[in-house]
Design the sequence.
């Protein structure tokens, strides 16, 4: 398993006791979500739907690469990777 830094968006920091970055060990994004849930109960339901799929309004980036263009939840993580959780922002004029 890789030790990675996870950047937590402001909207989820209630769940991480105000932390903007956390260290988690995981081999894939799916494992990362499970391990975040173990450390911070309640975060998983905000990241994935009832079918375990990443919510449409939640984006994950691994070292600035959108996982939707990699292997999605199966994207492999390496030691030292930076995973950013970015909520989608909708809007318009």
Sequence:
């Amino acid at each position: 398993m890789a030790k990675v830094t996870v950047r937590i968006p402001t909207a989820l920091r209630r769940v991480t006791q105000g932390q903007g970055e956390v260290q988690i060990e995981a081999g894939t994004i799916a494992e990362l979500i499970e391990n975040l849930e173990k450390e911070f109960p309640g975060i998983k339901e905000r990241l994935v739907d009832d079918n375990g799929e990443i919510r449409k309004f939640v984006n994950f980036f691994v070292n600035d690469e959108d996982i939707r263009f990699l292997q999605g939840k199966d994207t492999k993580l390496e030691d030292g990777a930076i995973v950013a959780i970015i909520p989608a922002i909708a809007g318009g004029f």
